[in-house]
Amino acid sequence: MSFVRNYWLSAVAIVVSAVVFLIPFSFIILMAFKDKTQAQLLDFSWPQGMHLWSNIVEVVTTRNWMLLTAFINSTILTVASVTLVVILSAMVGFVLQRRKTKFNGLIEFLILAGLMLPPAVVPTIWLLQGLGLFGKLHGLVLIEVAYSLPFSILLYRAFIATIPRELDEAAIIDGARPFDVFFRIVLPLLWPVTVTNIVVQSVAIFNDFTNPLYYLPGNANATVQLTLYNFQSQFSTSYNLLFTNIALITIPPLIVFLFFNRQIVAGMTAGAVKG
């Protein structure tokens, strides 16, 4: 009984989490196994026949293999954006933590503003059009980097605060230049928080729906989330194909979380316990 009293809140949290996440996921999987007629019912009934493979084939081949193109675009977008976010945010976090100037307060205010203020879509589109980047993949990469930097900078800065400054000073005495201090001394020590940042930002950017919708029009530039429009229309929706598409684009982030769950938790807490 003492065990129940001590851990009842944790048990309730686990049950609620299971209900919130497992029931919708099981509904997606069930719908992916149904044909179009049964899927229109939108219920938890058992599939009358296994139509998963035919649904997958139709989803993948729709609009000249648009889903494969979308996976390629999303992969390029995610890899390029996360690479820039990790490098830039680590460098900014290092400078903010190590160099105290009169501009630090202003810079920190702008970083927090980037977290709190909503994106200005129309002015951003005007800016991209002026730069000739609207509707181009590398333009969206810059958008994703800009939106992801504030959180990443704060994450790196908090972690760098736990790294002794004496390491920097010893490297400088040995003749290391500022870039050598960062890339050869500090950056390798940031591996736990870097893994966390890579996983979190990769899943967020890969699953991003609104930014590609606003800034990357056109079927050739479609990302995986935008392929959901393929099976929806004003008068008819192929729910079996829609949920099959959802299942296909959900699997990669799910696998990432399953394999890197421990690293995510360790990276988020390392800055608090590192001596």
UniProtKB/TrEMBL annotation:
Q: Which domain of life is it from?
A: Bacteria
Keyword set includes Manganese = no
- Any single GO BP term: transmembrane transport
Indicate whether Nucleotide-binding appears among the record's keywords.
Answer: no
Record organism = Devosia psychrophila
- Start and end residues of each ABC transmembrane type-1 domain: 71-260
Family to which this protein belongs: Belongs to the binding-protein-dependent transport system permease family.
TM spans, by residue?
7-33, 70-94, 106-128, 140-160, 181-206, 239-260
One cellular component GO annotation, for this chain's record? plasma membrane
The UniProt entry lists membrane topology as: Multi-pass membrane protein
Q: Which protein are we looking at?
A: ABC transporter
